[in-house]
């Protein structure tokens, strides 16, 4: 219905309340820094310098780039919260979306944000958001003037042909008000820097790769890319690229199965584990314009992160025209596949997980074949007075371990075992098998692999306690029921208990 020109009130947000609310988007330090790197890449920077300065409560962070820079008017607009609508069309290489990243990422970590910028042939400009000043004045006062910047950066921006400098001060979320000689706070600060380094190496690895790639420097040291797919390794399996269509846009999906650790050297295997470790890094890797958004996630498709699937990693490339379909958030750390593509993603994930698991199944079968130990069963078939009966194998390591723990209860334990043996429902089993031969479940059928792994681990530990070397204990377990049906878990158990030999 039409509205009259008088049918409204101005309801502008309170500056002090709103600007504090912009701090609550949930950025980590590394995600916030990555958001600022996005701006430098969008400005066609060839080099980006990131410097952390420790001085207790006066510590600071600066990010400098040699991108195209901004004019005074462009800088003022860039410093406006919500400077662009997410509905606006963007260049295909643009890594932004909401027009909030520079501000929300910065405010999430500091209370003072200074930006200096310069375009070719223009004078440098400077703008400063100081949250304490905004709160005191209760107005959206964006400070301006080159004199607001640190003196050394004033000189540097004047001498620069083009580029942008970002400075964070009052790092209350990173260091608080600790003294510069507080060793614990300094250590946490250094740990944060290390986390940022690994995160940037992962998120921007496709920009950093190659001799003509982006150069990213952290405290004077160049960050090397971390490739989650080990694409340069001969033993890496690339399963073939698939193109999926969404509203006229193309989604490119490339599954990889990484090499077993025996196929690569120790340093490569250790590096390929990634920031979170091998098991956590399995799953989909969603990229938007070559920038990694989601690193190692099964995208709520119903799959669990299980150890024997840890070699499965799937690259997904989406264009920025599909942001809303993928539910990209402000932090660019979340993406959810559109409903129209979920079945395709489940199919691709299932096939990749199967191929990854087969590597461990094969190795587990090899271990079982190499074991000289005859199969060991929980139940033994016996004949008494011409009649068949079944007896629990007292030599089974789990049974032996349990018996050893029954201090003072040996007689009742023996009676319990005898009761179980004498009441095996043989007739009922035979009748069911005759009527429905396929109705019986296999051992641990439908059980989570973790449950089988825990039982297998207890068997291996029991064998080790009896004096077997770890490798022999794993081999012995590999031919026992029910573990002989889970060769992939046997291979993983061997990895866990046998230290890797240097190559």
Notes on the protein architecture:
- With 503 residues, the chain is an alpha+beta fold.
- It has three domains: 15-222, Histidine kinase-like ATPase, C-terminal domain (Heat Shock Protein 90, 2-Layer Sandwich), CATH 3.30.565; 237-370, Ribosomal Protein S5, domain 2 (2-Layer Sandwich), CATH 3.30.230; 379-497, no CATH class.
- Helices cover 37% and strands 18% of the residues.
- The protein is built from 17 helices and 16 strands.
- The chain has helices at residues 15-21, 29-42, 72-78, 101-107, 131-137, 151-159, 183-203, 205-208, 266-272, 323-326, 342-370, 397-404, 410-422, 426-435, 449-465, 470-478, 487-497, and strands spanning 47-53, 60-65, 112-118, 125-130, 143-144, 163-169, 215-218, 221-222, 237-238, 242-246, 249-257, 283-288, 291-297, 312-318, 379-384, 387-392.
- The strands form three sheets. The protein has an eight-stranded mixed beta sheet with strand order 5-4-3-6-2-1-7-8, with helices on both faces. Strands 9, 10, 11, 12, 13 and 14 form a six-stranded mixed beta sheet that branches.
- Helix 11 packs across helix 16, helix 15 crosses helix 16 (470-478) and helix 16 (470-478) runs antiparallel to helix 17.
- The longest helix is centred in the last third of the chain and has 29 residues, at 342-370.
- The model is unreliable at 85-90 and 92-98 (pLDDT under 50).
């Amino acid at each position: 219905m039409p509205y009259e020109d008088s049918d409204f009130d101005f309801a502008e947000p309170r500056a002090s309340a709103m600007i504090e609310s912009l701090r609550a988007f949930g950025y980590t330090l590394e995600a916030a820094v990555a958001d600022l790197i996005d701006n430098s890449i969008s400005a066609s920077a060839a080099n980006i310098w990131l410097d952390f300065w420790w001085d207790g409560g006066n510590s600071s962070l600066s990010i400098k780039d040699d991108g195209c820079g901004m004019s005074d008017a462009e800088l003022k607009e860039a410093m406006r919260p919500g400077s662009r609508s997410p509905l606006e069309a963007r260049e295909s290489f643009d890594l932004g979306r909401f027009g909030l990243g520079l501000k929300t990422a910065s405010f999430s970590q500091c209370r003072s944000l200074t930006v200096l910028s310069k375009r070719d042939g223009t004078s440098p400009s400077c703008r400063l958001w100081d949250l304490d000043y905004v709160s005191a004045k209760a107005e959206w006062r964006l400070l301006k003037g080159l004199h607001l910047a640190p003196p050394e950066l004033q000189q540097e921006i004047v001498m620069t042909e083009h580029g942008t400098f970002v400075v964070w001060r009052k790092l209350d979320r990173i260091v608080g008000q600790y003294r510069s000689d507080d060793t614990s706070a300094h250590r946490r600060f250094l740990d944060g820097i290390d986390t940022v380094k690994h995160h940037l190496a992962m998120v921007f690895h496709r920009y950093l790769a190659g001799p003509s790639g982006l150069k990213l420097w952290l405290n004077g040291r160049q960050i090397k890319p971390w490739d989650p797919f080990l694409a340069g390794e001969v033993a890496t399996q690339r399963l073939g690229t698939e193109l999926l269509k969404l509203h006229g846009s193309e989604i490119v999906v490339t599954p990889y199965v990484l090499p077993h650790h025996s196929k690569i050297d120790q340093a490569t295997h250790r590096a390929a584990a990634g920031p979170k470790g091998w098991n956590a890094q399995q799953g989909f890797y969603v990229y938007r314009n070559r920038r990694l958004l989601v690193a190692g996630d099964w995208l709520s498709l119903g799959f669990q992160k299980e150890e024997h699937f840890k070699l499965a990693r799937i690259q997904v490339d989406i264009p920025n025209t599909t942001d809303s379909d993928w539910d990209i958030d402000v932090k660019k750390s979340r993406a959810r596949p559109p409903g129209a593509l979920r079945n395709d993603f489940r199919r691709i994930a299932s096939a990749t997980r199967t191929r990854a698991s087969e590597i461990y199944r094969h190795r587990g079968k090899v271990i079982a074949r190499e074991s000289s130990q005859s199969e060991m069963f929980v139940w033994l078939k016996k004949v008494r007075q011409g009649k068949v009966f079944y007896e629990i194998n007292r030599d089974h390591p789990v049974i032996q371990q349990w018996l050893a723990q029954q201090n003072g209860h040996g007689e009742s334990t023996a009676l319990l075992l005898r009761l179980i043996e004498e009441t095996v429902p043989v007739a009922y089993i035979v009748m069911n098998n005759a009527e429905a031969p396929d109705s019986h479940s296999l051992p641990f059928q439908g059980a989570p692999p973790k449950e089988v792994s825990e039982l297998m681990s207890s068997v291996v530990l029991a064998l080790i306690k009896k004096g077997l070397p770890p490798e022999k204990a794993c081999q012995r377990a590999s031919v026992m029921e029910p573990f002989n049906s889970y060769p992939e878990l046997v291979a993983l158990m061997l990895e866990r208990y046998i230290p890797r030999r240097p190559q």
